[in-house]
Amino acid sequence: MFASALAAWIAGWHGAASAALGGAIGIVGGLVFAWLASRARAVSADEVLISALKAEAVKLLVLITLLALVLATYKHVVIISLIGSFIVSTSIFGFAFFVRDA
Question: Rounded mean pLDDT of the chain?
């Protein structure tokens, strides 16, 4: 939300849309990973690791596909807004691993 507002102020409507799309792509990738990782019924550490690596591979495939789709179809994309919000949203999901309950 903040990235879209900042991009709208700097680059106008297309900047806001690009930032929203970049953030949405990162969120969708994180949700795909979480969904696939939670579906795994692993009983050993090896199976947990394999499940997580498979989920990560699918996440990367989804991220690359969605980025390519946006770049190919949205002619007025503001690259800085798109990539900036994409990096922030994927980083937030990456740092969620380090958050612990109090």
Answer: 87
Cα–Cα dist 53/99, whole Å: 20
Query: CA dist 30 to 27, 37, 79, Å?
Result: 5, 10, 21
Q: Which two tokens stand for residue 83?
A: 């990539």
pTM of structure: 0.83
25, part of any domain: yes
In order along the chain (102 residues), what is the average pLDDT of each group of 10 residues?
69 86 93 89 85 93 96 93 92 77 61
CA distance 67 to 77: 11
Q: 101 lies in a domain?
A: no
Question: How far is residue 70's CA from residue 26's CA, in Å, rounded to a whole number?
Answer: 13
Tell me the residue range of the domain where 82 lies.
2-95
Question: To which H or E segment does residue 69 belong?
Answer: helix 45-73
Question: What is the tens place of the pLDDT at every residue in 36-57?
Answer: 988 888 788 888 889 889 999 9
